[in-house]
Design brief:
Layout (H helix, E strand, L loop, with lengths): L3 H4 L22 E2 L27 E6 L3 E2 L12 H16 L5 E3 L5 E8 H14 L17 H15 L6 E5 L5 H8 L5 E6 L2 H24 L10 E5 L13 E3 L7 H13 L4 E4 L3 H7 L4 E10 L6 E9 L13 E2 L2 E2 L2 H11 L1 H18 L7 H10 L1
Parallel strand pairs: 6-7, 6-9, 7-8, 9-10
Antiparallel strand pairs: 1-3, 2-5, 3-11, 4-5, 10-12, 11-12, 13-14
The chain binds S-adenosylmethionine.
The site of S-adenosylmethionine has 21 residues, from α5 and β7.
InterPro entries: DOT1_dom, SAM-dependent_MTases_sf
Protein name: DOT1 domain-containing protein
Length: about 400
């Protein structure tokens, strides 16, 4: 049960240059990164006694490369997330900015900054690493697969909180959620209302729900034991499916995708879906030239940052976009509603499950695990296979 590969981000010299587009040319570019002093090799105990529920109050630091902001903060507040954004900033600003960022000098003149990881996030990654820790990078099954390190995911999360108001009222979708780490991360910090992942590949989805099942069981044990610190967030549902079966991204406020390796056709489908939806923010790993000019997502770039990959030396820039106002009238809108909010039918059941509380989500996930992983009754045996073959 080791986190050593995630504790320190790879040291690189990353000097970010904004790549202005037609829509972002006039925007000022300034580097900014949330940070606290580095605590190389910082370790935490799950049984620690500090009594605060705030994730940022109980955290350890890791080191990560710095960020570029392309839109002045005052311009990026959304209409529906304004209060959320203000609250998020109010609660986060003192915790993140109380100390001046300390830069760590790297070989060959590079610099990097440290970043705080909340203890409940660490608890979740510990569980995930124990079960599926060696999977990552690009190697799984030979197909393209990749996921960020915990430090890079935290950095993206902090930027989402700071620049898009990601918070407890947000609804987050990871398109192609793989093993579910981004979903699990934001379900802890900031603890979004609905963290939903959809994954096409059944093996990855099964690994994801196996992870989620372990995490929810841990959360249930915490509840039974009356634990009050570093509590594990449970508002997360991972489903096996194809995002192309949805017509809209509603009800999600934040559409996230680690889209390295997505085929062009899928981008066109996603762009059409996004432009018709009311989702306000798009978080991905391709720049404006591709996302705006080629695939015509109706978005403006807010901020970008270098990120590191788990199990690989690759660096990919993470981009956070907000909806441009143009598509307000484009296409037909989502007419179906759940909890009074526009919601594509593909996501309705998952949202209801998520709202049903820890027991409801745990029951739902346990059923999946039993059906797809846990049950030995349905396992194919040599004689059953022979019978099936003879019948065919
Ligand atoms: C690079 S992985 C990212 C995993 C995860 N989002 C993360 O960041 O850790 C991209 C995933 O998208 C999935 N994917 C590709 N097309 C999809 C589709 N149409 N619907 C759902 N998932 C899809 C792939 O199977 C793959 O697991």
């Amino acid at each position: 049960m080791s986190l050593s590969h995630d504790e320190i981000e790879p040291n690189r010299n990353v000097s970010e240059v904004a790549t202005p587009t037609k829509r972002s040319k006039s925007l000022a570019s300034r580097a900014e990164a949330a940070s606290e002093p580095p605590a190389k090799g910082a370790k935490m105990s799950e049984q620690s006694n500090v009594s605060s529920f705030s994730p940022l109050a109980r955290s350890a630091n890791i080191v990560t490369p710095s960020t570029s902001v392309l839109t002045p903060k005052k311009n990026v507040e959304s209409t529906t997330n304004t209060t959320n954004a203000r609250n998020a900033r109010r609660s986060l600003t003192p915790a993140i900015k109380k100390e001046a960022p300390k830069e760590k000098k790297l070989p060959f003149g590079g610099t990097s900054k440290s970043i705080a990881i909340a203890n409940n996030v660490r608890r979740v990654y510990r569980i995930v690493n124990k079960h599926t820790g060696s999977i990552g990078g690009n190697s799984h099954g030979g197909a393209i697969y990749g996921e960020l390190t915990v430090g890079s995911m935290q950095k993206m999360t902090n930027l989402m909180i700071e620049h898009t108001g990601l918070g407890k009222e947000s609804r987050f979708i990871d398109v192609g959620c793989g093993l579910g780490k981004p979903n699990l991360h934001v379900a802890q910090m900031p603890g979004v209302e609905f963290s939903f992942g959809i994954e096409l590949c059944s093996t990855r989805w099964m690994l994801g729900i196996a992870n989620l099942h372990q995490i929810l069981q841990r959360a249930k044990m915490d509840e039974v034991e009356g634990r009050s610190t570093d509590l594990i967030g449970h508002r997360c549902v991972l489903e096996h499916g194809d995002i192309r079966e949805a017509n809209f991204f509603d009800p999600f406020t934040h559409v996230y995708m680690f889209d390295i390796g997505f085929p062009p056709l899928l981008f066109h489908v996603l762009s059409d879906m996004f432009n018709k939806s009311s989702s306000e923010f798009l978080i991905c790993y391709h720049g404006p030239k591709l996302m705006i000019d080629t695939y015509e997502f109706d978005v403006e770039l807010i901020v970008q940052t270098p990120t590191s990959m788990h199990g690989s030396s690759e660096v990919h820039t993470g981009y956070i976009y907000k909806r441009a106002q143009k598509s307000k009238i484009a296409g037909s809108r989502c007419k179906t509603k759940t909890f009074g909010v526009p919601c594509d039918p593909l996501f309705a059941a998952a949202w209801k499950t998520c709202k049903s509380g820890l027991d409801g989500v745990l029951k739902h996930v346990a059923q999946h695990v039993d059906e797809h992983i846990g049950s030995t009754e349905k396992r194919i045996t040599r004689s059953a296979a022979k019978k099936a073959h003879t019948k065919a």
